Amino acid sequence: MTTAAAGSPRTYQVRTYGCQMNVHDSERISGLLEDAGYVRAAEADEQPDVVVFNTCAVRENADNRLYGNLGHLRPVKAKHPGMQIAVGGCLAQKDRGDIVRKAPWVDVVFGTHNIGSLPALLDRARHNAAAEVEILESLEVFPSTLPTRRESTYAGWVSISVGCNNTCTFCIVPSLRGKEKDRRPGDILSEVRALVDSGVLEVTLLGQNVNSYGVEFGDRYAFGKLLRACGDIDGLERVRFTSPHPKDFTDDVIAAMAETPNVCHSLHMPLQSGSDDVLRAMRRSYRSERYLGIIEKVRAAMPDAAITTDIIVGFPGETEADFARTLDVVREGRFSSAFTFQYSKRPGTPAATMDGQLPKQVVQERYERLIACVEEITWAENKKLVGETVEVLVAVGEGRKDERTGRMSGRARDGRLVHFATGDLAGRIRPGDIVHTTVTYAAPHHLNADGAPLAHRRTRAGDAAEAGQVPRTPGVLLGLPTIGAPAVPPAPVGGCAAP
Question: Are 181 and 21 a contacting pair, CB within 8 Å?
Fold first, then answer.
């Protein structure tokens, strides 16, 4: 007995944890499996033929979360012979064969460098009736050469690089993702065009350290050139990027943001700490003055820019004075949002063995004070927008209370979340459409627009959402680095490209 009926395709489900890079990798995993003949399981299906965990290793409880979820699946698998479980991503890269030792009912373990091997590993494990563990130490094929099943009809992730050359003492990512590898600009632009041709309005350029793009081929201004090149793509209405590193932030990127109409005036730039001593211990090669100087330049060029950040509380050795300096920088930075974290010890990182590990209660108390400070500022910044007209790209799943309130939700050009009333247009506005509306209320984490929309534009992305179509992009071949589209675009490939 197997879980799939005789002759019917096997079903799959991907469960994703972690950052935007993992979310995009999961789109590739879905594309690979569908290219191999699998079909996505219905959301209510509790017994898919294949369950893939795409894991994260950044947080301390990542291991517990994975093994807890694997434990829940063990009796399900026991009742359904033929079901397979695969574990990939950063935690798989880190733990390797330990996963099968701790959870012997797992069928496949694959790493961050060999996503493309998953269908073959599943076949091999099923044929041999034994677990397959394959972890590569370096990237064989750039992930964007793989087929991708996009999750959104209106917004798409585009990787411009993978890996990281930095050595932050709290971060395990470089050891799991490897050194930075940059894609050819022409290939990036080809992928962006393919997305736009399928109706996508917004792309987010992704990299572990997005603005160091070009380091591999020796052009420190490559990222600014890439932003400007995106401005020449007809039909591309919004360009975002994440996450830049302050040490690599150059004035030409600010100019490109300000002068390229479809590049959004939003910037997510991790701070991590406002204390120069802590930044030094973190091995972050900038100081608070440099960070605030970048913000000042951004706002001088784009007064409407919304700036968001990441902050870690409780790094080893952090004193009350260090923490106070972080609060000072938050107040000076006037962030529109901040992702705040309590320091999490990760084995294998230098910070894990540093002296001065702080008690949990100290970290928690500082964390709560940081949250209060951030929300005071984000609320004040959001209140400035009451009465302003905003352009909203209508989204799916952004507003958890929309069904009860009768609103829809989406993102303004600056990245802020907007819940808006539909008025007489109820039932006619689709995800992917564009709405102009007036802000009537501000909260720390969102804006409300409770009047009737001022304008509504139907889009190709909205048409695709209404038709239930999901963009699928084939792999994009690699080549030599050049800015701009190649004279003859590379032919797309279906399935895995050869390394």
Answer: no
Distance CA 482, CA 186 (A): 6
Measured in degrees and rounded to the nearest 5, phi and psi for residue 470 equal -120, 125
The pLDDT tens digits for 397-438 are 888 788 788 899 999 999 999 999 999 999 999 999 999 999
* Backbone conformation region of residue 301, classed left if phi is above 0, alpha if psi is from -120 to 50, else beta: alpha
Do the beta carbons of residue 305 and residue 265 sit within 8 Å?
yes
Structure confidence by residue, pLDDT tens digits, 76-85: 999 998 999 9
In whole angstroms, what is the distance from residue 157 CA to residue 154 CA? 11
Q: Determine the 3-state secondary structure of 331 from DSSP.
A: helix
Q: What are phi and psi of 293, to 5 degrees?
A: -65, -35
Contact between residue 186 and residue 485 where contact means Cβ atoms under 8 Å apart: yes
Q: Please tell me the distance from the alpha carbon of residue 236 to that of residue 238, in angstroms, as a whole number.
A: 6
Q: Is 423 left (phi over 0), alpha (psi -120 to 50) or beta?
A: left
Determine contact, residues 144/191, Cβ cutoff 8 Å.
yes
Neighbours of 82 (CB within 10 A): 13
Q: Is residue 238's pLDDT more than 60?
A: yes
From 99, 105, 166, 101, select the one nearest 130 (Cα to Cα): 105
- E-strand stretches of 170-215: 181-182, 202-206
Q: Check if the beta carbon of residue 163 is closer than 8 Å to that of residue 127.
A: no
Cα dist from 150 to 198, 218, 310, 324, 327, whole Å: 11, 32, 27, 43, 39
Q: How far apart are CA 392 and CA 455, in angstroms?
A: 10
Query: ∠ at Cα 105 (133, 99), nearest 5°?
Result: 45
Structure tokens at 236: 């591309």
pTM given for the model = 0.80
What is the distance between the alpha carbons of residues 81 and 98, in angstroms, rounded to a whole number? 24
- 469 residue type, one letter: Q
> What is the C-alpha to C-alpha distance for residues 209 and 397, in angstroms, rounded to an integer?
28
Strand 155-159 to strand 202-206: parallel, antiparallel, or no bridges (unpaired)?
A: parallel
Burial of residue 315 (number of CB atoms within 10 Å: 0-12, 13-18, 19+):
buried
The region, left, alpha or beta by phi > 0 then psi within -120 to 50, assigned to residue 211 is: alpha
Report the alpha-carbon distance of residue 36 to residue 30 in Å, rounded.
10
Q: Are 50 and 122 in contact (CB under 8 A)?
A: yes
Question: What are the residues facing 148 on neighbouring strands?
Answer: 473
Other CB atoms within a 10 A radius of the CB of residue 140 amount to 12
Give the residue ranges of DSSP H helices in 38-146.
62-79, 90-95, 98-102, 118-128
